[in-house]
Write a sequence for this structure.
């Protein structure tokens, strides 16, 4: 089909035909019985997808940044110590939000492509007075994966609430929210959850709800205040109508479809598929003589890969790959922006997409004069996929 592109960026991603068809259903009233069922069922399914059986789910109209904002606005009290385990661009944003609400932010940073590990976090927590630890599950600017289990463990031991920005991870990168001790797990619809942009999704642990309920100062955001949304989420889950702000009716219908597809695949199978495809993609990239931004394979995310340009090749590689029908993204981390590009591989992604992407990268590299054995990346990825 002429003019058909494959969207391989870190969100929005390719969505399934069933999700797109749900978007196109006639918009119903937000208090119609069929929509109440759709919303209520989506809240219930969120607990299974986030692996957070005791948590309170929230579905809000807005982007992932609203989810970050809502998390901070509701559980941070002015003067609270916040430790941001910083792996790049979106960790910085979380720190900015905490500062805006009066938090005392300590940034625990690493070089681009790296992230502080659990023992460094433990040491930092001992050295200060902290109420909240924030983790970016997959840093979208570098493709670095956080050790959420390890970091959340030491944060809980230190009596801190854990806020996880998994906008580029949820339903792609393994997260056992409740078992690992994550209090607020937030994401956005357009990434591995597989729904067009426009929804912020959060699950909030009983401990975090308690912190919210016992706060001494009002939540400094009107739209993001859990006090306004909690009765609405409860009403829909009990299959009663409720209103604070009009829900994004068509997006919630699409979310309902996507959550069903995710649960039909099964969480373990879904995490394993992302690992497998990402591993095959990295094999292909390495066989071409290219390097990834993450410092090691253990730090490489299953949902997105950040790839350094080889010598003699620069940011004009991305439009060249685009001319081959595959849309990828340029660099984002401010310190190394011009030196790498990013490929998203999450949600409905399959082996054919991985091979098509490597093929387009090879052709673009050849067009830019990079010397390599044509087909070697594809062959390496295909070997990994045949294993
Ligand atoms: C995409 C992303 C965000 C921001 O989400 P928006 O929907 O663009 O507001 C935040 N954090 C991470 C890790 C992301 O990947």
């Amino acid at each position: 089909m002429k003019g058909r592109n494959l969207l391989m960026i870190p969100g929005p991603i390719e969505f399934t035909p069933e999700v797109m068809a749900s978007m196109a259903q006639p918009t119903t009233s937000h208090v119609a019985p069929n929509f109440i069922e759709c919303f209520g069922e989506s809240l219930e399914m969120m607990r299974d997808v986030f692996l957070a059986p005791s948590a309170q789910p929230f579905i809000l109209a807005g982007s992932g940044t609203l989810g970050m904002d809502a998390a901070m606005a509701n559980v941070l009290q002015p003067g609270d110590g916040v430790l941001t385990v910083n792996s790049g661009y979106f960790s910085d944003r979380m720190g900015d939000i905490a500062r805006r609400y009066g938090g005392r932010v300590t940034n625990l940073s690493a070089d681009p492509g790296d992230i502080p590990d659990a023992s460094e976090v433990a040491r930092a927590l001992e050295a200060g007075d902290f109420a909240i630890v924030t983790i970016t599950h997959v840093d979208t600017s570098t493709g670095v994966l956080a050790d959420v289990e390890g970091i959340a463990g030491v944060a809980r031991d230190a009596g801190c609430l854990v806020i996880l920005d998994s906008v580029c991870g949820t339903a792609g990168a393994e997260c056992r929210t409740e078992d690992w001790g994550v209090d607020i797990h937030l994401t956005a619809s357009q990434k591995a959850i597989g729904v067009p942009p426009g929804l912020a999704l959060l699950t909030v642990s009983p401990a975090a709800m308690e912190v919210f309920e016992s706060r001494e100062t009002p939540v400094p955001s009107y739209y993001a205040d859990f006090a306004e949304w909690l009765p609405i989420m409860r009403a829909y889950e009990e299959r009663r109508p409720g209103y604070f702000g009009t829900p994004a009716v068509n997006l919630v219908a699409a979310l309902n479809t996507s959550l069903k597809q995710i649960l039909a695949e099964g969480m373990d199978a879904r995490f394993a598929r992302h690992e497998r495809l990402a591993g095959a993609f990295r094999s292909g990239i390495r066989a071409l003589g290219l390097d990834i931004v993450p410092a090691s394979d253990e730090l490489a995310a299953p949902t997105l890969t950040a790839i350094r340009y080889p010598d003699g090749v620069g940011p004009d590689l991305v439009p060249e790959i685009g001319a081959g029908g595959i849309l990828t993204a340029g660099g984002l981390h401010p310190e190394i922006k011009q030196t790498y590009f990013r490929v998203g591989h999450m949600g409905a992604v399959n082996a054919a997409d991985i091979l098509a992407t490597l093929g387009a990268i090879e052709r673009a590299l050849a067009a830019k004069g990079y010397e390599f054995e044509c087909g070697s990346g594809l062959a390496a990825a295909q070997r990994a996929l045949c294993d």
